Amino acid sequence: MNTDINHYMVRKNQKEWQPLVEKGVRYEGIWVRSLLFNEKQGRSTSIQLKFDPGARYPYHNHPAGEEIFVLQGEVIIENQTLSEGDYLYTPAGFKHSVSSKTGCVLFFVIPEEIELL
Hints:
By secondary structure, the protein is mostly beta strands. The chain has one domain (31-116): Jelly Rolls. Helix content is 0%, strand content 59%. It has no helices and ten strands. The protein starts with 17 loop residues before the first strand and ends with a strand.
């Protein structure tokens, strides 16, 4: 284990926002910044997502659930609007889509890969 705390830190300007691309599909108006990459799974399990105003992510399933914390703006999940400071835990098998009328920045913890439906 690396004992240098800096090895585990991500500073706000350290990583650039990247377009969200999954399995070759680019989601217009959605940006991602990896915070924690899981080497064993080969993917990020803690991320920030940024939605431009009007952006949408399609209906999907979370086999292992997820955690969402709204850092800025508003996001709509299952017809419920979450605002800055709101938190949502969705249990394993929870299905939903995500959109933002105003734009938002979210912190996500996603233990397993999502399944598009």
